[in-house]
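Pilot study result, target chain (1011 residues):
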Amino acid sequence: MRSAPLLASLAVSVTLLATGRALPQTTALRTFGVRDGLAHERVNCFFEDRLGFLWIGTWEGLSRFDGREFQSFGARDGLESPLIWCVAESPAGRIWVGTHCGGMARAVGGADGRPAFESVRVEPRLDDDAIFDCAFAADGALLAVTTTGIRRCAEPDAAAPSFELVWKSELRKWDVQAIARAGEWSCFLGAFPLVAVRGSEVVVGAPPPGDPPAEAVHAQPRPDGRCVVHTTAGLIAFDPEAFARGTSPWSELDGEIPAGEVVHAVVGSEASLWVGSVHGVLRCAGGRLARGAASGLPDSMVRTLMLDRAGALWVGMQVGGVAVLREGPIRTLPPAGRADPLFVVKVVATGDEHVVSTSYAGLWQVEGDALVPLRGAERLPPGGDNFSFFAAGHGGFWMGAPDGLWRAATLSPIPERMDHVALGDGVRAFGEVFLARDGAAWVGGYDGRLYRVAPGSERGEPVDFPPDVDAPPRTFAQDGDGRLWVAPPNHLWRQGADGRFARVAVDGLPDPLQPRALAFDDEGHLWIGTRLRGVFVLSLASDPPALLASFSTRDGLPSDHVPALAIARAAAPARAPPVVWLGTGRGLVRLDPATRALRVYGSEDGLAGSTVLDLLLEVGGRLWIATTGGLGVLDVHEAERARALPRVYVAEVAAGGRAATPPPSGARELDGVVVPSDRRELVARFEGVDLASGRALRFEHQLEGADRGWSAPEPGSTVSYAGLARGRYALSMRAIAPDGRRSEAATVRFEVLAPLWQRPWAVALGLLGVAVAGALAHRARVARTLALERMRTQIATDLHDDAGANLAQIAILAEVARQGAPGGDAPLLTDVAELARATRSSIADLVWAVDPRRDTLLDLVQRVRGVATNLFESGARLDFRAPPSEALAAIELDPSARRHLLFLLQEALNNASRHAGARSVEVAFELAPGRLPRRLIVRLRDDGRGFDPGAPTEGHGLASMRRRARSMGAAFALESAAGRGTTLDLDVPLERRPRILVRWRRAGRRGRIEG
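Predicted structure:
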């Protein structure tokens, strides 16, 4: 075994993690066992699938861990043997496991929605039928390692998969440490001949240096195929690129395994390795490989190791279950010579010196990577909780004491001579000491008053501050105008131009405010951390100030207790709000005010105490964190690294009460889900996987097509919808880690079917039926219209040809008879002739009204013009006006309206001719303006003698005209007075009926409709 340094890029040192003492505070440790749901506490293997699940093969079953809870599987779930040696995932996402004495098993859909397994025999049968390792090749084939060699299953997703022996080992004991990928080759690595498989092709190469180790070793290959195995020669690196070039892929890593170590697992790369042995875990990160410090693992014998995608180390133990070690970005400085952690309340810096004050443990200073008692601190009086502490930039410091303040010119070491500053009569300082820009120190006293210590003064003078209202002051800030802001326990106070303090009232701030920390950013905004209300941001551009923003647990803060603030200062004028660090009662928070994005740091990030009491942000980017568990330091630039996002998958879906289960191991996307029309409801259960965040995940969902945006975050991940409208939808769910990181969304795409009568084919059939019915109705209407037109034509013809001819004959015969009649009968025969001619004229009007060929407004106007011309041709002057013939011909009138309008106008013209004695008569037709005339305006006016419309009359003409106007729905207006003529106005509605163009062609007694 070699003892020279490791490779040039590798300097090895060791931290041995065994039982006995606590882990270094820079590493967070969590353990899991049967009490947490783990199938068994002897762990054989780990596997992280594409969804982020951690599969754990144990001595008595298989467990799956999502960061929150375990699901365990055994014989009742289809595993013929519960002893699991290996786990692999197919390209399609199916989980396969290799068992002892039970062959292989692959995941299938369980009846209750969780994965179940079916046994797959590896033929020919082995003596013990054990599968010690397995992996999927580049071509999708499943490769299994048995005690006798390598078997290959070309179609692992077939209904009855079969295996073939592709290589047989000549060794009595053949232990494979890893199956690494080198291009299209699958390389089987260990202390035996290198075996590489590509399809059915097998290549056997030279083994690594050394002989097989004493016990089986598990090595985890990296995604790029690099791997480190263990032989009696030590740690040997495998280089897949060298294998592809045809050169030796092996290289020895220099360094000695400590004596007495029996290696069981190796993970990592040449530059950073973890080694699991019978005595714990060795960390190789630089230096010399040797046994080092101890840790809190529940069992010293390590069986297997795995590094997950986030870089956490998972440790599987012989009898201790599972442990996970995470190296957080926060490094906690241990107190030298002290077993108990420090309760740090304040951290200050002066030059390169960093000093912390503690609760009843005195002052400590940073020395290297540890805290040591402050040199000369024994000269200080007992400080108690020591919240009252301030280090000046020139190297001096102020510290509260039971009898006032102590002031010294230097901080480290504490000088032998210090200045005492009295506050009243032995008043003890309360809260922090604040040094203003003019050099004066401000501090609150336990008597509830505010004190100011002028530069060089040995006594603090009380300031006019109303202690009976809100006291005592505990924290301070100074704005750009030099005004002091004071925060007593309950409210906020501001110093005025006259030096007096007044309470600040701002709309939107709670009462009491209970401020605990104050800080100004580069924009001059005041940030306020409170005891129970989170954080508030004030703008000082107005007076009183205005509330700009607030942040609380409703916005994702882990706690509403914010006792510490630190704001990054921009090197140039800031274009966006600076990053703000919040110390809360449940961890450290990085806040981006521009986006309101939060990142929470807790114990998994190396934070020693849950409550952060003070923060100090240096220009170089180091953030010092005073917690109830010690002092931490964080490189804020390192903290910007993106951490692995949580993952979300679709676990179960029920559409209309029927299960639409995704693949056994879950799916990121599930398409083709159909919701029936009779039960328009969908229930979807999603699951989040985040091995780092554990139970702290929250979820938000969005239904595209229904929701306006993402829902409010909540712990539950089951969503249900009812009464959905028909259509296609996409339901998405994503997880939110405690630090605000959001996962990519998992999606269920589904379609809500329309009711039967709304289906496209049903709608098409209905439309066709409506069209057929409409066509038949149209044809029936045309037929009825045609029959009515025939009847009207026949009536008009009969009246004209028969009744009209007979009346004409009666009039002629009466005239002939009158010429030969005695003198007394002649007048009677004259009356008979006149009556016959009058009756024939009336029948002519009826014939015109009934005749369908006279249905247009043009025919009416021409008829009225003829009547008026006949009545006034030898009397009064007639002024007749009407719209153009084309406009009148395009308007059809209802036969009834046409008849009433004709007879009403005839009556009015007859009255004007017989009774008015008019010299001038005006008849005017007008169409109401518009593209589609709806009304006809008719006016008849004469300049005759007129009459009183309200006086009783013997005739019925006026009443008849009003009755006819009402029958047409027309507005009737008559104006007349003695000697002033008469004016008649009619406003007749025109019903624009659809025209049915009928051309009747005589062909015997048959007709044909053409349009």
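One observation from the pilot: The chain has a mean pLDDT of 82. A full batch analysis is planned for the follow-on phase.
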